[in-house]
Amino acid sequence: MNPEEIQTIAANQRKAKEQVPHHICVCTAAACLSVHSDEVKDALSDEVRKRGLEKECKVKGVGCMGLCSKGPLVSIETDGALYQNVTAKDAPEIVEQLGQKPVKRLKCSTKIPFFQNQKKIVLENSGVIDPDRVEDAIAAGGYDALIQALTAMSPPEVIEEIFASGLRGRGGAGYPTGLKWSTVSKAVGMHKYVICNADEGDPGAFMDRSVLESDPHRVLEGMIIAAYAIGAEHGYVYVRAEYPLAIKRLRTAIRQAERLGLLGKNILGTPFSFHIEVRLGAGAFVCGEETALIASIEGRRGSPRPRPPYPAESGVWGRPTLINNVETFANIAPIIRRGAEWFSSIGSEKSKGTKVFALAGCINNTGLIEVPMGIPLREIIFDIGDGIPNGRSFKAVQTGGPSGGCIPEQHLDTPVDYESLSKLGSIMGSGGMIVMDDTSDMVEVARYFMEFCLSESCGKCAPCRIGTDQMHRLLDRIVKGKASIHDLELLEELCDVVRSTSLCGLGQTAPNPVLSTLRYFRGEYESKLVDVAEAVKKA
Amino acid sequence: MSSQVRILTFKIDDRDVSAREGETILEVARENGIYIPTLCHLEGLSSTGACRLCIVEIAGRPKLFPACVTRAEEGIQVITQSERLTKYRRVILELIFSERNHVCSVCVSNGHCELQNLAQKLGMSHIHMRYRFPSLNVDASHDRFIMDHNRCILCTRCIRVCDEIEGAHTWDLMGRGVDARIISDLDQPWGESETCTGCGKCVHVCPTGALVEKGKSASEMAKRQQFLPYLTLMREEKE
Amino acid sequence: MRIDLSRPSPPSDDKRWKMVSASMRRHGHKASSLIETLHTVQEAFGFLDEEAIEFIAASLRVPLSQVYGVATFYHFFHLKPPGEHACVLCTGTACYIKGVPKILQALEEEFHLKPGETTPDGKVSLMTARCVGACGLAPVAVFDGEVVGNLKPDEVVQKVRRWKNDES
Ligand SMILES: Cc1cc2nc3c(=O)[nH]c(=O)nc-3n(C[C@H](O)[C@H](O)[C@H](O)COP(=O)(O)O)c2cc1C
Ligand code: FES
Ligand code: FES
To answer: On chain B, which terminus has fewer CB atoms closer than 10 Å, C or N?
Structure first.
């Protein structure tokens, strides 16, 4: 298909939509599905059919609306009403009130800070479009950026635009995306690859999954633009096998894009061709690390290898390879569509744009949020998140998962950006944000993350393989009241050694949760210690 | 085809050295008689950068670099000895000792063990951490050799020599993390392996007493590794 | 001497092997499709047994020990048949903070059941997963594919007991 035909699809879809006065959108992302939003959707469809309203009202499944703790969520597009905790029994009442006063009992105000303080770029279509329909995505502006890039921009211009936007990688390390693209584009070699990292290993995070489940075409579009910019013909999306719904929607999206000539040979009638394959992970956190991910795509054990050479120079099959995170790719189309200047006007000085966080733990509003970079943590937790439930008080917020750290009350006014968080001993990470109240035991939290790293270490390098195990044993002793001051000293020494000498990022960051809790909550460690003689007795 | 090799100059421990482009820091150091401890590395096999004992500093860079896989660069200043490096190397060695059951006095490799030698060389007198004491088996099913997992340090030399030199790929690694273990074929007893050619190369490249010949008593198992650079060289000449 | 390099035939005429063979063919029998193939076998048979591993190794011409190494590296693959019912407990950060350890402890005390194990009667397998993406409902379990939130230890113990007694 050529660009005009795609634009016709968009126009037709928009027109068809205008002819239906009411749209009922039911969230069918993972969290709402787990509280049976599929039944709600069926009940609403039945009700509409029973009343013979099929022409006036469409019921559709959409991606995540964000406020997962209040699910199942239903929104009425035309009335702007949002309903929370909906059950199948509520269907008649909801349909009855279409176009009139919303059902008060179920109403969830959209005036609350949870909605008002967010800024949506990556998630702009989440909860709005039907992820299974490419027409819906196209009507919402999907693939506009691709058309623009392919018809009006040269590859260096695309890279320049991404560079100027200030976008940095959302997979954790915050490496400037434009710079990475430009390195791969300059690498010598015929065959280049683009990989989308959708391994999402942080055990308290589900942003990437939600993006793939809610708006998969946005990620594909980003990848295709990247391939055009760097000159790649093949790409992979590496997704965790634990995300069956995301995989299904992604596969559907790839088929649809291929059918419309947005992917495959001679994209949009131009000489540019690009193919995408889905590869499944198999339950290994370390495969999120880029060299391990490449080993896994090649069918091997997911063990990282020393860098350099970086994947930009020698990646899959030894070819120059671009690896970016899902959310990074999801930012590409808006940047091309609206320009680098627009994008870089959002966020803070060194961290541009927005960041998606998965908000969870001891907090009233759990779910998925997207906020401008630089927003203070306090605003996220107390305004958007609506504070701590059960009358308890805030103790710490954990960001960056097993590679990150805990941030205490006194630093809540810190702006959320790459530099500020690492100054506090944590990291931005991929976007997991777990809030802990005053009942949480910080040593226990450190032990939890160490247990995670221990079981996810690939076992290749000695410091990480044995060091995480030894540190876990020490933390376990401290928690159980069997450790002395010597054990704490040894723990600190091991933190230093493992961090400085491990082969890959997993080992290098594994000590972070311990170091950050030691920095802010040392007293909790010390209060659990016993004297040396007693520790020996309990050994 | 004329392939001009670029020559780089840089410093190791304040000494001016030169290298062909593509050479590792370790290779250059060895050519110049500068000692850097190594364990997983073995000349003639691919390098994995796994044991981390060969870490060195490069002036002006915060990270540490494993010398066995880091290529020399023009103008860098490599530091192979410092208080920090000594400490890290010692702790890593302690970690390796603590992982499984290394009881030197009863080991057939006592006195010929690379791990033991390193401990002496790096001045590791005792181990600060607790031993893990895993219970691991000894595979004596092969008629000439023994695999004692208690003494294995997962350097993977056996896997590499079997794959890269012998071409049998009998050995590999199963599981992961601290539970990883060397296996033959489908984690079968070695003696039942259908792929093993019985060449014994793995035994001779093993740095410890994990892979040994049968019938040796304590301290008797010296290893012969000279064959490896020779084999590799002969192979390269043929290509 | 002639070495037989033809592709091996499947271990049995079970129809599911056809799926496996087709998947390998689609990937051109490339060694790099090992993980994809293991996924296909596990999806078809529920787990990977020795026979399957040997067949895959021979078909893709990957050394036996390497296939075994890969299959045991990735926690998603099982080498033993799973129980009739699966109880997957989320041990993601949110679920952990909200009390999953207590549930694990209760299951161990009650049934001597640890993660990765199956009850001796083959009825229930206990597994853990890291964040199933329903953190708002923590602690969360997945009972035979159905996500259930806000769990208490005794609820999970009851569920497992009912499964063991063949009630649902
Ligand atoms: C142990 C480990 C796990 C990682 N897991 C992920 C992950 O799940 N998703 C991801 O996008 N990046 C992950 N990364 C970071 C990647 O290696 C890589 O930096 C990233 O995918 C680059 O994309 P970006 O520049 O768009 O952020 C991980 C890194 C390490 C060391
Ligand atoms: S010798 Fe270099 S890492 Fe082991
Ligand atoms: S931590 Fe359990 S669902 Fe996310």
So the answer is: N
Residue in A455, A493, A503 closest to B49 by CB: A503
Cβ separation B50–A490 shorter than 8 A = no
Band of pLDDT at residue C3, cut at 50, 70 and 90: low
From the list A37, A66, A121, A172, the residue with the least C-alpha distance to A385 is: A66
Question: Which residue of chain B has the CA closest to C51?
Answer: B186
Q: Report CA-CA distances (Å) from A466 to A305, A307, A415, A492, B229.
A: 18, 22, 36, 15, 31
- Whole-number Cα distances in Å, A224 to A54, A90, A215, A248, A256: 37, 43, 15, 20, 14
Indicate whether A452 and A408 sit together in one domain: no
Q: Is residue A118 part of a domain?
A: no
Q: Is A100 left (phi over 0), alpha (psi -120 to 50) or beta?
A: beta
What single-letter amino acid sits at C63? P
State how far the alpha carbon of A113 is from the alpha carbons of A227, A399, A434, in Å.
38, 21, 19
Q: Which atom of ligand 2 is nearest to the CA of B47?
A: 2
Domain C16-73 falls under CATH 2.40.50: no
Q: Which of A305, A323, A344 is the last residue of a domain?
A: A344
CB contact (8 A) between residue B176 and residue C73: yes
Residue A7's nearest CA partner among A186, A202, A138, A149 is: A138
Kindly state the tokens that stand for A338: 């609206």
| Preferred mutation among C97, C104, C146 to probe A, highest tally of A CBs within 10 A | C97
Q: Does one domain contain both B68 and B154?
A: no
Distance between CA C74 and CA B97 in Å, rounded? 27
CA angle A317, A320, A326 (to 5 degrees): 95
Read out DSSP for chain C?
-----SPPPPSS--THHHHHHHHHHHTTT-GGGHHHHHHHHHHHHSS--HHHHHHHHHHHT--HHHHHHHHHHSTT--SSPPPSEEEEEE-SHHHHHTTHHHHHHHHHHHH---TT-B-TTS-EEEEEES--S-GGG-S-EEETTEEE-S--HHHHHHHHHHHHTT--
Residue C116: pLDDT over 90: no
Distance between CA atoms of residues A111 and A31, nearest Å:
23
- Domain termination residue (choose one: A422, A437, A452): A437
Q: What is the pLDDT of residues A265-274, one digit of tens each?
A: 999 999 999 9
Write phi, then psi, for C147 (nearest 5 degrees): -80, 125
CATH 3.40.640.10 for domain C85-164, yes or no, is: no
Enclosing domain of residue A380: 354-437
pLDDT in tens, B126-183: 899 999 999 999 999 999 999 999 999 999 999 999 999 999 999 999 999 999 999 9
Strand partners, B12: B15, B78
CA distance C128 to C93: 12
Give the span between the Cα atoms of B97 and B114, in whole angstroms: 12
Q: What is the pLDDT of residues C17-71, one digit of tens each?
A: 999 999 999 999 999 999 999 999 999 999 999 999 999 999 999 999 999 999 9
**Ligand 1 pocket: which of A180, A290, A329 to mutate (most atoms <8 Å of CB)?**
A290
Q: Which domain holds residue B144?
A: 87-238
Is A201 within 8 Å of C130 when comparing Cβ atoms? yes
Q: Please identify, among B81, B110, B127, the residue that sits at the C-terminal boundary of a domain.
A: B81
Evaluate: CB of B68 within 6 angstroms of ligand 2.
yes
Q: Mark whether A324 and A193 lie in a shared domain.
A: yes
Residues A165 and A245 grouped into a single domain: yes
For chain C, residues classed under CATH 1.10.10 are 16-73
pLDDT in tens, B184-237: 999 999 999 999 999 999 999 999 999 999 998 888 888 888 888 888 887 777
Q: Is C3 on the interface with B (CB under 8 A)?
A: no
Q: Which atom of ligand 1 is nearest to the CA of A293?
A: 17
